[in-house]
Design a protein that fits this description.
Elements lengths: L10 E3 L2 E3 L6 E6 L4 E7 L3 H20 L2 H17 L1 H12 L3 H7 L1 H15 L6 E4 L2 E9 L2 E5 L5 H14 L3 E5 L7 H11 L7 E3 L4 H9 L5 E5 L2 H13 L3 E5 L5 E4 L5 H13 L11 E5 H15 L20 H16 L3 E4 L14 E4 L6 H4 L6 E7 L2 H8 L7 E5 L3 H10 L4 E4 L18 E2 L6 H5 L1 E8 L9
Parallel strand pairs: 7-8, 7-10, 8-9, 10-11, 12-13, 12-17, 13-16, 15-16, 17-18
Antiparallel strand pairs: 1-2, 3-4, 5-6, 6-20, 11-19, 14-15
Helix pairs in contact: 2-5, 2-7, 3-4, 4-5, 5-6, 6-7, 10-11
Bound molecules: NADPH dihydro-nicotinamide-adenine-dinucleotide phosphate (NDP).
């Protein structure tokens, strides 16, 4: 089922598509049907070498351009992405299985937002002047050099842009390795960036498993590694990058708390919990999968949640009426199903869902467990699927203590009508990306990332500039040098 927008080769290097069929075949599966829709080849050592050498050469001239010139290219690419949003959304749906009702609004469009935002900032990246009597110091904000981006499979276009846009704005080159599960979308990002005027060699995409990511991370010519992935992979990649004292950004997994107080608007709290657990069929790193509900509102919350889940439209992701798609792969479906079985075995109350849909593709029902206890596996481990765990609480202090009792720290949310309490509780929650009376909004203007084991560094916002550039300070003496001998 080849689609017209499909990329024409496995890799994108030095401004053009590249192929080396000596690399192992990676089948691309459409999760809606389980059909194979394309094949890409894993990058061979020759492909990896080509990507690194061309990126190194291209980066010097790119960093020497003015920020305004660099930014203009990124903003042009943002416009082109928006013009082609429909086709890019179709490709995103083929890659991930996510419904068009999502991909049309949050994937290519949020990638375009990042290119527009960092394109706009590029011309304003400056150092500072520090007067020291007659002498003075000035600082230069300089590029890091060659950045490697490694992506997860849940948002392939967005991740390719969230890493590429700040890297390029700051004058770096990038080699991006998508997840082997979703290899297609990043190629289109590379194609559009170069069509928009990006000089050859600055944004390269190479395919493969972790076995291709690993040598990129350790190569001495690579200056920075930005990973979006799980905590176990983050540990490996962070350690490998540390051996070369490289800069890192780690956007890792989570098991985030969403705390719903008795006084919250029931409708908003239920809506927030749905967004926090079932968008992208639950395959979102920042999801609020531990839903702490205060005892006074619990039964009403579960009843309304159950009612609203009856209106979910599961089915063909190309049909824009569908609002709930499949798991990205058979493997992920099996992992999530095994967690559902663990939830049942541990004695949690299955409120709804829990099964596989009787159709082709990797569809699981939105699943809610109530009466979940803190020590149950479904309350402790990241499931990365449509499984909500509802836990009871009575006091604010109890909810905060239990919410923080996790190795993760990516996100947290609070629903309450008492805004003073909302701010007080959020201030005490150990998480990087938080929400009050909302969940999972990720505008490019806001820093995004985790604390504790959920990550290092921040993506998006002005904060990302610090993670893709470095300061050089220059002391300028105006008078004679006073040496001791
Ligand atoms: P993985 O951690 O399995 O993989 C992430 C990427 O790292 C993939 O491209 C993978 O390649 C690659 N990789 C694996 N091993 C190595 C290695 N040793 N060296 C270099 N690269 C390696 O994550 P998933 O793709 O399964 O994505 C799901 C995870 O990502 C979840 O934990 C989720 O929470 C997290 N995530 C975090 C986000 C955030 O911003 N905080 C956003 C989205 C997801 P391959 O898989 O192709 O072998």
């Amino acid at each position: 089922m080849p689609y017209p927008t499909q990329p024409t080769a496995s890799h994108f290097i030095n401004g053009q598509y590249a192929e080396d069929t000596a690399g192992a075949e990676i089948p691309v599966i459409y999760p809606v049907t389980g059909e194979q829709i394309a094949v890409v080849h894993e990058a061979t050592p020759a492909i990896i070498e080509q990507a690194i050498t061309t990126a190194k050469v291209a980066q010097k001239a790119w960093a020497a351009m003015s920020g305004t010139e660099r930014g203009r290219i990124l903003r042009r690419a943002a416009d082109m992405i928006r013009e082609r949003n429909h086709d890019l959304s179709v490709l995103e749906t083929y890659d991930t299985g996510k419904p068009m009702s999502e991909t049309l609004y949050v994937d290519a469009t949020s990638g375009a937002d990042a290119l527009e935002y960092f394109g706009g900032l590029a011309g304003s990246l400056t150092g500072e002047h520090i007067q020291l009597g007659e002498d003075w110091v000035y600082t230069r904000r300089e590029a890091l050099g060659l950045c490697v981006g490694i992506g997860a499979w849940n948002y392939p276009t967005q991740i390719a842009c969230w890493k590429g846009a700040p890297a390029l704005a700051c004058g770096n080159a990038m080699i991006f390795k998508p997840s082997e599960t979703t290899p297609l979308c990043a190629l289109k990002v590379a194609e559009i960036l170069h069509e928009a005027g990006l000089p050859a060699g600055l944004y390269n995409v190479i395919q493969g498993t972790g076995a291709v990511g690993a040598p990129l991370v350790t190569d001495p010519r690579v200056d920075k590694v930005s990973l979006t992935g799980s905590v176990p992979t983050g540990r490996k990649v962070y350690a490998a990058a540390a051996a070369g004292i490289k800069h890192v950004t780690m956007e890792l997994g989570g098991k985030s708390p969403l705390i719903i107080f008795d006084d919250a608007s029931l409708e908003d709290a239920v809506g927030g919990a749905i967004l926090a657990n079932f968008y992208s069929s639950g395959q979102v790193c920042s999801n609020g999968t531990r839903v702490f509900v205060q005892k006074g509102i619990k039964e009403a919350f579960l009843k309304r949640l159950h009612e609203r889940l009856q209106t979910v439209v599961m089915g063909d992701s190309m049909d824009e009426a569908t609002n709930f798609g499949p798991m990205v792969s058979e493997r992920q479906m099996n992992i999530v199903q095994s967690y559902i079985e663990k939830g049942k075995a541990e004695g949690a109350r299955l409120v709804c869902g829990g099964g596989r849909l009787d159709r082709e593709g990797y569809y699981l029902e939105p699943t809610v467990f109530a009466d979940v206890k803190d020590d149950m596996i479904i309350a402790r481990e990241e499931i990365f699927g449509p499984v909500m765990a509802v836990l009871d609480f009575e006091t604010e202090e109890d909810a905060i203590t239990r919410a923080n009792d996790t190795e993760f720290g990516l996100s947290a949310g609070v629903f309450t009508a008492d805004l003073t309490r909302g701010h007080r509780v959020i201030a005490q929650l150990e998480a990087g990306s938080c929400f009050i009376n909302s969940y999972n909004d990720a505008p490019v203007e806001a820093p995004f990332g985790g604390s504790k084991q959920s990550g290092v560094g921040r993506e998006n916002s002005k904060a990302a500039i610090n993670h893709y550039s470095q300061m050089k300070s220059v002391y300028v003496r105006m008078g004679a040098v006073d040496a001791p001998f």
